[in-house]
Amino acid sequence: MSLRTRLVWLTGSWILIILIFFNIFIYYYTFKKTTSEEDRLLWNKAQIILRNPDIHNPRNWSRPDLLQEFGAEDTLIRIIGASGRIRAQLSSNEELSAYPAVYRTGYQSTVVNDFDSRKLFIQVPIISENTGTQIGLLELGKELDFISSVLDILVTGLTITTISIILFSIIAAVFYTRVIIRPLRQLLETMRAIRSSGDFVLLDPKYTSKKDELGRLGQTFNEMILFLQDTDQKQKQFVADASHELRTPLTVIESYASLLKRWGGNDPAVREEAIEAIHSESARLKSLITSLLKLAEVEREELMNCSDVELIPLVKQAAEQMEHAFQRQIELFCPDEEERPIVLCADREKLKQLLIILIDNAFKYSKEPVKIDISRVRHHVQLQIIDRGMGIPKDELPHLFERFYRVDKARGRGTGGTGLGLSIAKQIVTQHRGTIHIDSKIGVGTTVTIGFQQQK
Ligand SMILES: Nc1ncnc2c1ncn2[C@@H]1O[C@H](COP(=O)(O)OP(=O)(O)OP(=O)(O)O)[C@@H](O)[C@H]1O
Ligand SMILES: [Mg+2]
């Protein structure tokens, strides 16, 4: 059963149950109210009859005029003797007279429901004036024609109202479930379309513009699709860029190898050049693959191995290593670590790798000594790597963290870069919930600023 049918059914059944309950209540309430009024009138009449002293003497019961004055239309008045025999009766209605006479002690009021009519009977004991004991029973009966017709009208009215309400509510339910279900159907169809075509399809804006839950469902779906599309796009771009980057050195190697194969082997100059080129391109290929592996590794967040890391000794260690490797100089400015060490909750190895990537850039793209500045503002730690090198054009700054991005390819190639360093750095900073920002001016230098939250 579809969701829509189920909702319509549910609404219909629920309203039907409520209506049945209320109809029964209204019917019985009206019935009780109207019958109790008739009941009261009969009791009053019985009291009036019993006020006649002749009634209390059985010898008068056979007098034909005894009950005459109390006669009324559609009413039965009779006296039942202690033997159960009818001793006196006044009735203009045969159906009422046909009601079996039963002698009872005590008061009673009974409603008799026949197929097409209702009758009310009351019985009142007749007490002897002399002995004070019950000597007979006064029975009054009345045809409840008016009440029956009122109840018939009521039943007809209630039936018509019930059927109309059920019909209207089913029509309303069909309509509003369509409104509710439509966005869900659309969502389902869009998902099917995505599965069958493999394309990223967005939901129509009319299903995402509403501020209700369904609107938000649509918005979230579209956001998810855009995110997947973006990820897919980046993935494709990455594969394309990586293949391209890997192909370039391989093409150089292949062409030099062919050169050697054909005739370079005999010419020492060509041989020397080919070997040199093959060697440098192989080294480049190796560094490219190493960077790619590093990138894949840092992207795996579960490999984060966090612990309390003292920042200043780590920076000193990385700086010293780089100074030795590049035979260059680094000037370090930092607060007195003895006084209050700067402790970060971080992955030590990744943090060191981040420093090496940034120092490597500063060395590669400048000639003068590099400056590292560490400062602390409350719980924030700021680390700056400053060089006075060639700088980066302003319009290139937003792209620096993209994979394989190099500011003017010739410069990158000349210094052997792969363009992956900063994207790895960005990954590491993001994983540590930090921030990274690059300021640069052509011919003046570059400042990379990293911000971290300090461990309390
Ligand atoms: N300190 C800097 N001064 C000038 N240019 C820089 C600096 N740091 C980065 N760049 C520019 O940004 C580009 C991207 O840097 P990134 O570190 O990502 O790649 P790379 O240095 O070329 O290669 P590698 O992957 O080996 O680090 C570099 O090619 C370079 O042009
Ligand atoms: Mg670099």
What does this structure look like?
- With about 450 residues, this protein is of the alpha+beta class.
- It has three domains: about 5-155, Beta-Lactamase (2-Layer Sandwich), CATH 3.30.450; about 215-295, Helix Hairpins (Orthogonal Bundle), CATH 1.10.287; about 305-455, Histidine kinase-like ATPase, C-terminal domain (Heat Shock Protein 90).
- It is built from nine helices and twelve strands.
- It has a five-stranded antiparallel sheet with strand order 2-1-5-4-3. A five-stranded mixed sheet has the order 7-9-10-12-11.
- The two termini are about 60 Å apart.
- The model has no long low-confidence stretch (mean pLDDT about 90).
- The structure holds adenosine-5'-triphosphate (ATP) and magnesium ion.
- Magnesium ion binds near residues 357, 360, 361, 417 and 421.
- The site of magnesium ion has 5 residues, from helix 7.
Brief rundown of the structure:
The protein has 456 residues and is α+β, with helices and mostly antiparallel strands. The protein has nine helices and twelve strands. The two termini are 58 Å apart.
Number of helices: 9
Terminal CA distance reads 58 Å
Instruction: Sum up the overall morphology in one term.
Output: rod-shaped
Record the strand order, biggest sheet.
2-1-5-4-3
CATH class of the largest domain: Alpha Beta
Output mean pLDDT: 89
Q: What is the CA-atom radius of gyration, in angstroms?
A: 51 Å
What secondary-structure arrangement, pairings included, does this model have?
Elements: H1 3-50, E1 75-81, E2 86-91, H2 94-97, E3 108-113, E4 118-127, E5 134-143, H3 145-197, H4 213-262, H5 268-299, E6 306-310, H6 311-326, E7 330-333, E8 343-347, H7 348-364, E9 370-377, E10 380-387, H8 409-414, H9 421-431, E11 435-441, E12 445-453
Parallel strand pairs: 7-9
Antiparallel strand pairs: 1-2, 1-5, 3-4, 4-5, 6-8, 9-10, 10-12, 11-12
Helix pairs in contact: 1-3, 3-4, 4-5, 5-9, 6-7, 7-9
The structure holds adenosine-5'-triphosphate (ATP) and magnesium ion.
The site of magnesium ion has 5 residues, from helix 7.
